[in-house]
TrEMBL record, chains A, B, C, D:
The keyword Transcription applies. Keywords: DNA-binding, Transcription, Transcription regulation. InterPro entries: DesT_TetR_C, Homeodomain-like_sf, HTH-type_TetR-like_transc_reg, HTH_TetR, Tet_transcr_reg_TetR-rel_C_sf. Residues 12-72 form the HTH tetR-type domain. It comes from Actinomycetospora endophytica. The keyword Disulfide bond does not apply. Residues 35-54 bind DNA. This is TetR/AcrR family transcriptional regulator. SUPFAM superfamilies: Homeodomain-like, Tetracyclin repressor-like, C-terminal domain. PROSITE patterns: HTH_TETR_2 (PS50977).
Amino acid sequence: MTPTARRRLAPEVRRRQVLDAAIAVFSEEGLHGASMDAIAARAGVSKPSVYAHGGTKDELFAACLAREAERLMTAMTTAVGSAGDGEGPDDAEARLFRALRAFFHAVTTHRQGWTVLYRQASTGEFAGRVDAARRAIVRRAAELLAAELGGSVEAAEPVAHTLVGAAEGLTDWWLGTEHPATDEPPADVLARMLTAVVWPGLDRLRALPM
Amino acid sequence: MTPTARRRLAPEVRRRQVLDAAIAVFSEEGLHGASMDAIAARAGVSKPSVYAHGGTKDELFAACLAREAERLMTAMTTAVGSAGDGEGPDDAEARLFRALRAFFHAVTTHRQGWTVLYRQASTGEFAGRVDAARRAIVRRAAELLAAELGGSVEAAEPVAHTLVGAAEGLTDWWLGTEHPATDEPPADVLARMLTAVVWPGLDRLRALPM
Amino acid sequence: MTPTARRRLAPEVRRRQVLDAAIAVFSEEGLHGASMDAIAARAGVSKPSVYAHGGTKDELFAACLAREAERLMTAMTTAVGSAGDGEGPDDAEARLFRALRAFFHAVTTHRQGWTVLYRQASTGEFAGRVDAARRAIVRRAAELLAAELGGSVEAAEPVAHTLVGAAEGLTDWWLGTEHPATDEPPADVLARMLTAVVWPGLDRLRALPM
Amino acid sequence: MTPTARRRLAPEVRRRQVLDAAIAVFSEEGLHGASMDAIAARAGVSKPSVYAHGGTKDELFAACLAREAERLMTAMTTAVGSAGDGEGPDDAEARLFRALRAFFHAVTTHRQGWTVLYRQASTGEFAGRVDAARRAIVRRAAELLAAELGGSVEAAEPVAHTLVGAAEGLTDWWLGTEHPATDEPPADVLARMLTAVVWPGLDRLRALPM
DNA sequence: AATGAATGAGCCTTCATTCAT
DNA sequence: CATGAATGAAGGCTCATTCAT
C-alpha cells in the first residue's frame, strides 16, 4: 500500500533524485533538448515535484552544473592533496601524474556530469557560469603548475589551459567508442598517456623563466 | 538609407548571408537553442527567406556543418601542405609548428565555425554528422602525427585528440580577456607555446613503438 | 461567475467538449479550413487542451468521423429495427417510411455530424476514411433496399445512392429558410414527402430483375 | 526562341488557362488545400500571373464557381429547350428524361467543375455563394416540374430539391470507382435509372394538388 | 506533500500576397 | 507584361510553468 513514487521522502533525498535525473537527461539531450517532462519521468516523480525540489529549468541546470563542478574539484583536490601514497616516488612528475589521474578518474566515473559541464553548457546564457567552473579548475591547475615549475600563477595560466584542454581532448577520445580495452583503470592509462606527452616539455620549462 | 530588407539580391549572396547568420547563432545558442527567428533577424531577412535559401532548420544546420568543416580542412591542408617557406628549417618540429599555426589561424579567424563543429552538443540526429566532421579534423591531425612520429594512424589518434584538445584550451585562453599583447600574429604565439609544451614529449615518442 | 476555463474537469467530459467543438468547426470550415485555434475557442479551452484530449488535428478529425458515423448508424439501426410500432401496417412501404424517417431524424438532429461525414471534401489522406464512413451508411440503405425489393446488395447500390441523395436534398430544403410550418415532427413530414416520390418507382422495380 | 510560357497571350486566353488550372487544383485539393503555387504550376505560369489574371484566391475560387455554375445551367437549358429530337416520344416522362440526361451529361463531362461546385465549396465563406448556384438549378428544376405536373413553382420546390439531390447522389455513385461498364453514354444510363425511380411517383403527383 | 489537468508563450513551417527587375 | 525574390500573417504543435485537488 505504499507506492514508491508517492511515498513522502526526505526533501534532500528527493532533491538528489531530481538532480540525478536532470543530469542524466541534460547530458543526453542538452539544455534545450531536455524537457521537464523527461526529467520528471526519469526521476519517477511528477512534474510539479521537479519544480518543488529543483526549481525552474534554469535553476535546475545551474544546480547540476554547481554540483558536478564541485564534485570534480573535490575529487581533484583530495587526490592531489593525498601525499605520495607509497606507490612510488614523489617527484614532480609523479605529482603531475596523480593530479591527472584524479581528473581522469573523476571525469570517467561521472561521465554524465562531465558531459553536462563541458559539452552541453558552453552556449547561451550559461556560457558564463560554465566558464567560471572551468576557470576554477584551470586556476587550480595553474597553481599546481606554478608550485612545481616555479614562476607566477599568471604566467602558468596558458600552460594550465593547455593542459586542461589536452585532458579534455583525451577524455573525449576515451569516451568515444573505439579505444582498446585495458585491465588497468582508465584513469591510469589516460594519465600515463598525457604525462608522456606533456611532461618532457613541462620539465624543460622549469629551467626557463616563464 | 538603403533598405536592405526588400532589396533583391543574387541567391548565392543571400544564401551566404543566411549561412553566416546561422553559424553565428548556432555557435552562440546551439542547435536547439537557436531559433529561426533569431537567425532571420541576424541575417537581416525575413523568416521565409531563411527557409527559401537555407531550407529547414536541420538542413540549415547540416549546411553550416558542411561549409565550416570544409573551410577548416581546406585551411589546414593548405597551410600544412605549403613546404618550408624559407623561414627556417624543415624538420619535424618545424612541420608540427606550422601545422599548429595553421590550426590556430583557422580556429581564431573562424571561431564560430569551430564552435559549431567541435563544441556543440552532438545530440540527437546530428550526433553522427557532427562527430564525422570532428573526427575528420582529428583524423587529419592523427595522419600528420603518424607520418612524423611513425606508427599507425590508429595509434596516433589519442595523441591527436590530446593535441587538438590542448590547442583548443590554449585558444580559449587566448580568446579570453587577459593575455599579453604581442606584435606577432596570435597563431604564431600560440603555436610556439604549444610546440614548447608538447614537442619534447612527442619527440621522445618517436623512439618508442606506439 | 464560474470561470470554466481553469476548472478541472473529468477527462471524458473535456474530451466530449473538444469533440463537440471540433465537429462544429469541421462542419463549418472543413478539414483544412478549421484551425485548432478555432476549435479550442469553440470548446472554451486552450489549444494545448485540445491536443491533450483530442490529439493531433488528424486524429481529432478521425475521432469526429468515428463518433458521428457510429451515432448515425446506431440511430438508423435502432429506428429501423423497431418493428411496426402499432401505428399502422407493416408492409414494405411502411418500412421504407420508417427508415426514411429515422434517417431524417438523425440527420436533422445531428446536422453537423452529417455534414462532416457526408458533405466534407474527401481529399487527401482522409479520402479513404471519409468515404468508408459514407459508404457504410449508403451500404446499410442498400441492404435494406435489397431486402425489400429483392436482388443483390450491389445492384441496389445506385438506388441507395439515389435515395440518400434525395433525402439530403430534401433535408437541405427543410433546413433552408422558407418552408411551411407544421405540427408534425419534421422527420415525419419529410419521410412522407420522399416516400410519395420514390415509393411507386421502387415498388415497380420489385417486379424487375435489377 | 519563343518559350510557350513566356509568350504574351491574349488576356482572355491566359485567364482561361488560369481558371482551368484553378478548377483542376481546387477539385483535387479543396479550397484550403489548394495553394496558389500549385495553381500557378498547373497553369504553367508564374504566381504573379495568376494574381494578374485570376485575382485573389477567393476571387479566383468565386470565378471558378461562377463559370462552372453557368456552364451547368447553360448545358441544361439548352438540352431541355431542344424539343424532342425525333428520337422518341415527347411526353412528360421523355422531357424529364432529357432534362436529367442533360444534367448528368454536364456533370459527368465536367467532373472537376462539379466537384468544386458541390463537394468542395459547401463550407466556410463560400457556402452562400454555392448555395445560390445550387438554388438556381433547383429553381429551374422546380419551374420545369411545375410546368409538367401542374401546381405552383413554390409547391414544386421540395420535389425539385429531392430530384436534384437524387441526381447528385447518383452522380456520386457514378463518379465513384466501382460501377459496371456500359456502351451507352453514362448520362443515358443515369438518366434512365433516375427516371425509373422517380417518374412513377411524380406521375402520380400530377393528379394531386401539390 | 504530491499530482493530474490546464494554459500562455513560443517555435518551426507554410501560404497568400506584393515589390522590384 | 512577366517573373524571381521577398515578406506579414497564420497554423500546427510543444514546452515550461502553475492551479486546484
